[in-house]
Every structure is written in structure tokens, then in C-alpha cells.
Design goal:
The structure is a single chain. By secondary structure, the protein is α/β, with parallel strands linked by helices. The protein has three domains: about 5-245, 4-Layer Sandwich (Glutamine Phosphoribosylpyrophosphate, subunit 1, domain 1); about 250-435, Rossmann fold, CATH 3.40.50.10490; about 435-605, Glucose-6-phosphate isomerase like protein, domain 1 (Rossmann fold). The chain contains 19 helices and 27 strands. The strands form five sheets. Strands 3-2-4-1-10-9-11-15 form an eight-stranded antiparallel beta sheet. A seven-stranded antiparallel beta sheet has the order 5-6-7-8-12-13-14. The protein has a five-stranded parallel beta sheet with strand order 19-18-20-21-22, with helices on both faces. α8 packs parallel to α13 and α9 (about 300-315) runs antiparallel to α16 (about 475-490). The longest helix is centred in the C-terminal third of the chain and has 21 residues, at about 425-445. Bound molecules: 5-amino-5-deoxy-1-O-phosphono-D-mannitol.
Length: about 600
């Protein structure tokens, strides 16, 4: 994740950009850079490493100008060098970017053929060249920016500065957050409200597909369809921006919508997009070529482990055992001689998971923590760690931490597959490409919000709900049922779709909705048979599937929630978004306390 700031101001920009970047350093500190307009010309200063290096560079070679953009980088494509640091620029435009441009390779090749010279290994640099290309063809800045953004695939937040354009700054958002700060004769862009908080308390959050065209005295927002749009102005007092919900009604909703960003951040931590390979940190003696693995967690973290069990077995051919921490620790589990244990936890403080970790360490098993909170107890006590980069999760019902866990575990499955010789470089590239597309696919899946909201209205009257899934979507069904129970207090159970006929089918009647998680994959036909069994017994089906699946389900479903077509490998990540939204809106319609449901605690530090 990277930090973005833009200032269209009336005072020297460089020190103000640095001040904002200091607040954004938590988003990344591999390199930092700023660009300002000096007499209408773009001037840049960049430095590898922490912000202090950029400050030194600016002290030696100051930048004038009152309009500029700045960036703190968390490296994804290309090493953390000065050349790869943002802003990336031509003579006509400078940009800073947060996110992943998925189609950067074909765009780069096209632009090189058109005579553009690239100076970095980043995906981001194509944005500057693409905009320049449209400017060269005579388009004014706003039109050039819109034309370029339309060609970008992936997830991004971008700020753009134009040579000769003392009264224009443009921002674009798709998948990665971007906020507009409204000043007095000044305007700002920031990757969050904290970035602009030194300058203004009035902030608008851009929505998916928005483009913001700023002048000193105006902020025009164009929505994804190119229509002028209004965005609510939030007023923050003091440091409130840090824990605000932005445009969202609840933290859970905000966190669901952060997932294109948080999965992207986590995936790029473990993936070298340039080489299409997974890169793991030093795992301190954890042997990824081991003969077997165990995965332990509680609640949602356990379900993430259950998905990983399918991945590790299918991709890496390694036998995996998953268990709930509270069961595992008391059953005197036996370990393979050459095995490792994976401990999944958002908080890193869950008492049962911690006890299971300690049990494994006492029994000389190497341990790997997949944890969201740095320096938490599980983080510290494990032999090695794979951080999930979801950021603070406030909603008690876990959402973005779950998909961040899946992201890290998916990368781990590829790494284990390579270590065991189960996949070759070509297959690794294919899997990595699929993983890199996931943030964008999650953003696409979230577009089903209006339909899901309408279905949730109906679901909120149910007393019991069943969730079905097959393969890696069985744990997603379990997670869907858990989410619904937690925040709407509706009784829900997840079942393996094939298990239905062995008992739970007795529950089917017209009052019990059945939610089926069914991408059109190799198991789809089997799940379709189960849907027919439900339909034959008068059950109401709510089917989450893609266009190909929807065509086959036809009218046996009461409702279809459309998800984007995707590689089966990453489908559990993509299908997590609609099941979360379904639970969320059901709770909203019931009027329950979404962020702090009764009886629950965010971190369970007791047995
Ligand atoms: O912090 P952890 O991931 O270890 O927490 C584990 C569970 O308590 C947690 O996932 C719980 O099930 C959530 N409330 C689910 O939304």
C-alpha cells in the first residue's frame, strides 16, 4: 500500500507535501518523492528509503511552487530504488499511484512502440506515459486523464499534476481509496483523510470509478459513467479522521469495501509481479518442502485455514490437517516428523490459538503465524510470520482480515508447491497472475450491492438460513453462515453441498432460504444437482454464481447474485465479498448492532 498527497495551494508546496507524507508513512516507506510546478514546469525530488532521505534531498535541492503531489511507496513492481520511486513523470504530467495496474505490460509495450521511453520497472509509470500520449494528441488535461484512466485495469488511486496547469489537479479512484480535501482557496487529494488533516477538516471520499477535477476554488466529481456527481462532505475535528467511517454507515461496510486495497496490499507483499513469482520472507527454519502441515485458528481465521487446506493439497500436493484451536490443543494431536504448523489470527491474541501454538512449539514443531496485528503475542512467539496487511479491523465481524488471510495463504500454497516441486514456473506464473487480478475482481463483485441489499431485505425475515458450498467454497459457506449469525442473530448453518441429502435436507421448506456459493467451476454440475434437490422440496434458493452459472441455474433460483467470472483458484476470495454484503445488509434491515453485535468481543483472550 502506498500513500498519496496532492496540494493545489497558495503557499510553498514541498514542506506541506512532506508534512502530509509523514502522516502517510504507515502506508509504506520503501521510498518517497514529491513533484511541484516551478514556473509551470514539473520538478521532482525522490529518494529511496525513509522520508528522512527525501527531506535531506529537499534540503540540498529545494523545490519551489505551491502546487504539487507526493508519495510514500510500499514496493510492489520493481525494487525500492530512487528510479522506481514516485512521482513518475514526463515533461507534461507527473503522477503518484497506489494500487496495481494489471494491464501494465501490454500498455507499456504499446507505448514503447509509440516512442515513449520508460525509466522505471514499475507498473505505475505507464499511467504517466498514457496520459502524455493523449496530451500529445491534443487532448486537454481533463480529457487526457479520463481517456487514460478508462484504459487502466486493476485497482488504483492516482493523483495527477500537469505542466503549465497551475490551476488543475486530478484524482482518480478505482479500488484504492482517495479523498478530496476542501480548503479555503486551496484543494487537496489524499489517500485518506489523515493525509489532508494538516490543511483542512472538510473531506469528501471518492467512490468507485470517480474522477475528481480540482481547481483552487472548485472540486468537480465525475462518476464512473462520466456524469457529474455530488459526494458528501465530512467534517473532522482533531484526529477523528483516523477512526472515521468515511462514506460508510458502519465500520464493517467500510472494511468490506476496503478489500480491493487490503487484498492487493497483502498479495503484493508476497508476489513479484514482474517475474510472476511468489517471494516469501525469511521463514526462519520453516521448511516449505515439508511432508505435511497443520493449520490452526478460531472462527473466521479457522475458515481461512480450511480454504488453504484445499489450496495446499491441490497446488502443492501436501497433506494438510486443519483444526479449531480449542479442539486441537486438548486432543493430544500427533505430528508428522517433517511438518510445520500455521496459526491464523487477526488479533494475534486469541487465547486458544496461542495455546495451540505453544503446544506445537513444546513438541518441536516449526510454527508460522499468519497474523494481522504486528507485535501481537502470536506474531512474536511463532518461529516465522506472514503478516496480513488488512490494517486495523474495527468491526467485530471479520471481513477484510479474512480475505487478507486468504491472500497470504494463497501465496503460501504457491510457495509450498514450488518448494515441493509440485508446480513448474509456468504454473506458478499462471497462479500469480490470477492472484494479482483478485483485488479488481473483488471490486467487481462488490458492484452487486443493490441486488444484495434487496435480497437481504427478504432474508432479514427468515428464522433459519442454510448455506451450501463445495470444495474450497464449503468453508466460504461456513463463513457466510457465521457472518449472518454474528451480526443479524439469524440462525444459519453452513454445509458441504453434497452432505445435504444426508440429513440437513429435512430442514428444507419454503420458510428456510438456502444460500448457495457456486462459481461455474469443475464442481458446479454437482452443486446444481443439490440446488435441484432443494427446489424439488419447495426451498427458496439464493445462488451466488457467475454468468455461466446463472445461465444453467435458470429459474430454479429465487434470486441470483452475480459474481465476476474468475480463475477457480481465487474464487474463494472473490465470493467472500457477496456473502459478507448479504450478512451486512440483512443486519442493517433487522436493525441490529452491526459493528458491535451482542455477546461478542473482537479479540477473545480467554479460553
Ligand atoms: O483474532 P482472531 O482472528 O484470532 O479471532 C478469531 C475469531 O475469534 C474471529 O475470527 C471471530 O470468529 C470473528 N468475530 C468472526 O467474524
Amino acid at each position: 500500500m502506498c500513500g498519496i498527497i496532492g496540494i493545489l495551494g497558495n503557499a510553498p508546496a514541498a514542506p506541506r507535501l512532506v508534512e502530509a507524507l509523514r502522516r502517510l508513512e504507515y502506508r509504506g516507506y520503501d521510498s518517497a518523492g514529491v513533484a511541484t510546478l516551478e514556473g509551470g514546469q514539473i520538478r521532482r525530488r525522490r529518494a529511496a528509503g525513509k522520508l528522512a532521505n527525501l527531506e535531506r534531498e529537499l534540503a540540498e535541492r529545494p523545490l519551489a511552487g505551491s502546487t504539487g503531489i507526493g508519495h510514500t511507496r510500499w514496493a510492489t513492481h520493481g525494487a525500492p530504488t530512487t528510479d522506481n520511486a514516485h512521482p513518475h513523470a514526463s515533461e507534461k504530467v507527473a503522477i503518484v499511484h497506489n494500487g496495481i495496474i494489471e494491464n501494465f505490460r501490454p500498455l507499456r509495450e504499446e507505448l514503447i512502440r509509440a516512442g515513449h521511453k520508460f525509466a522505471s520497472e514499475t507498473d505505475s509509470e505507464v499511467i504517466a506515459h498514457l496520459i502524455t500520449d493523449y496530451l500529445d494528441k491534443g487532448k486537454p488535461p481533463e480529457d487526457a486523464a479520463i481517456a487514460a484512466v478508462r484504459r487502466l485495469e486493476g485497482a488504483f488511486g492516482i493523483a495527477m499534476l500537469f505542466a503549465g496547469g497551475d490551476d488543475i489537479l486530478i484524482g482518480a479512484r478505482k479500488g484504492s481509496p482517495l479523498a478530496v480535501g476542501l480548503g479555503d482557496g486551496e484543494m487537496y487529494l489524499g489517500s485518506d483523510a489523515i493525509a489532508v488533516s494538516p490543511f483542512t477538516t472538510r473531506v469528501m471520499f471518492l467512490e468507485e470509478g470517480d474522477i475528481a477535477v480540482l481547481t483552487h476554488n472548485s472540486a468537480k466529481i465525475l462518476d464512473a459513467g462520466g456524469q457529474a456527481a455530488e459526494r458528501q462532505v465530512h467534517v473532522f475535528a482533531g484526529g477523528a479522521a483516523a477512526v472515521e467511517k468515511g462514506n460508510h454507515r458502519h465500520f464493517m461496510q467500510k472494511e468490506i469495501y476496503e478489500q480491493p486495497e487490503t487484498t492487493g496490499r497483502t498479495i503484493t507483499r508476497y508476489v513479484n509481479a514482474y517475474d510472476e513469482r511468489v517471494e516469501m520472507p525469511d521463514l526462519d527454519g520453516v521448511d516449505l518442502a515439508a511432508d505435511s502441515a497443520i493449520i490452526i485458528g478460531c472462527g473466521t481465521a479457522h475458515y481461512a485455514g480450511r480454504v488453504a487446506e484445499y489450496w495446499l493439497e491441490q497446488i502443492a500436493g501436501v497433506p494438510v490437517e486443519t483444526d479449531i484451536a480449542s479442539e486441537f490443543r486438548y486432543r493430544k494431536p500427533a505430528f508428522g516428523k517433517n511438518s510445520f504448523g500455521v496459526f491464523v489470527s487477526q488479533s494475534g491474541e486469541t487465547a486458544d490459538t496461542l495455546a495451540a501454538l505453544r503446544y506445537c512449539k513444546e513438541n518441536k514443531l516449526k510454527t508460522l503465524a499468519v497474523v494481522n496485528v504486528p507485535e501481537s503475542t502470536i506474531w512474536r512467539e511463532a518461529d516465522a510470520r506472514l503478516p496480513t496487511l488488512a490494517g486495523p479491523e474495527i468491526g467485530v465481524a471479520s471481513t477484510k482480515a479474512f480475505t487478507a488471510q486468504l491472500s497470504a495463504l494463497a501465496a503460501l500454497a504457491i510457495a509450498v508447491g514450488r518448494a515441493r516441486g509440485a508446480i513448474d514456473a509456468k504454473e506458478e506464473s499462471r497462479l500469480v497472475r490470477a492472484l494479482m487480478e483478485t483485488p479488481r475482481l473483488i471490486a467487481d463483485a462488490l458492484h452487486a450491492e443493490p441486488e444484495i441489499d434487496a435480497i437481504a431485505q427478504e432474508l432479514s425475515h427468515a428464522r433459519d438460513v442454510l448455506y451450501l458450498g463445495r470444495g474450497a467454497h464449503y468453508p466460504i459457506a461456513l463463513e457466510g453462515a457465521l457472518k449472518l449469525k454474528e451480526i443479524s442473530y439469524i440462525h444459519a448453518e453452513g454445509y458441504a453441498a453434497g452432505e445435504l441429502k444426508h440429513g440437513p435436507i429435512a430442514l428444507i421448506d419454503e420458510a428456510t432460504p438456502v444460500v448457495v456459493v457456486a462459481p461455474h467451476d469443475a464442481l458446479f454440475e454437482k452443486t446444481l444437482s443439490n440446488m435441484q434437490e432443494v427446489n424439488a422440496r419447495g426451498g427458496r434458493l439464493i445462488v451466488i454464481t457467475d454468468a455461466a452459472g446463472a445461465a444453467e441455474v435458470g429459474d430454479i433460483a429465487s434470486h441470483i447474485i452475480l459474481a465476476p467470472a474468475c480463475d477457480p483458484f481465487v474464487a474463494p476470495l472473490v465470493y467472500s465479498a457477496p456473502i459478507q454484503l448479504l450478512a451486512y445488509f440483512t443486519a442493517v434491515h433487522k436493525g441490529t448492532d452491526v459493528d458491535q453485535p451482542r455477546n461478542l468481543a473482537k479479540s477473545v483472550t480467554v479460553e
